[in-house]
Amino acid sequence: MKTILIGIAATAALSLFGVPAYADCAYGAAGSEQDMQLPAFHQHFGDHENIVGTWLVNYGAVGKAFIQWHSDGTEWENITHPSMGGNICMGSWEQTGRWTYSRNHFGWYFDSTTGLVAGYFNETETDKLSRDGNSYTGENVTIFYDMWGNVVPAPGAPSPAPADGYPGTSSAVRIAP
Questions:
Q1: What is the pLDDT of residues 2-14, one digit of tens each?
Q2: CB-side exposure of 173: number of CA atoms within 13 Å?
């Protein structure tokens, strides 16, 4: 039994090597390029007055994600990136206008050699909800930090990091209850 446990531990440790660094939820090099369709997506359902609910979000080359916007002003995201790199992110949001929302979002990224946390990123996003409340579009900026709070380039990106962060866009459709 001891030999089996040592073998499993060694296999797990060795599998960490050669894994590229990822800053999932925000960094395009880590995303899946596969297209996806929801099996039971219904485009015609009741109007919604706010952004609370579950969404399928398209970040273009960065990937796709499921995001849940909660009524208490928090949100979480599960993006199409490998779980080993970290594919769950979270944050908070507030309504800034009749159809406009601001999101402040955080996630970890990992060192490709050790598999340990190398830093975190902060994505700020402004989203515009459609009049029927069933889709939105957004613009975002992501800034990467090391564990000491210093701004660094995105994993795999050349130095220096852009002074204003990495810009991006999103579009989303509501997933029917």
A1: 444 334 333 333 3
A2: 13
